[in-house]
Design brief:
The chain is elongated. It contains three helices and no strands. It has one domain (5-87): Methane Monooxygenase Hydroxylase, Chain G, domain 1 (Up-down Bundle). It is mostly helical and 88 residues long. The longest helix has 37 residues, at 5-41. The N and C termini lie far apart (57 Å).
């Protein structure tokens, strides 16, 4: 445990930030998994609806700087590719 007051405050803030980031990342993983489950089940309409929700969740996480904007774009792109591959 740090002795300097600023370091002690920093440790506390880091813990709060880490908890928020973990929660946000969990939401993104859940949304992504739902899309992938719909793709595997062959539900095209459901997959498209869930893709929109997943993109929104990913964008929110990127806006909160949990993910870098390019990482968020990559995640959305990969999900969209899988959903679009169903249409073929």
């Amino acid at each position: 445990m740090p002795n300097i007051k600023a370091s002690i405050q920093s440790v506390k803030k880091d813990a709060v930030r880490r908890a928020k980031n973990a929660s946000e990342k969990s939401r993104v993983r859940t949304a992504s998994r739902r899309v992938l489950d719909a793709v595997e089940a062959g539900n095209a309409d459901e997959a498209k609806t869930l893709l929109r929700l997943a993109c929104k969740t990913i964008d929110q996480a990127a806006a909160n700087r949990v993910y870098h904007k390019n990482a968020a774009a990559r995640k959305k792109s990969r999900l969209a590719r899988k959903v679009n591959a169903m249409a073929i």
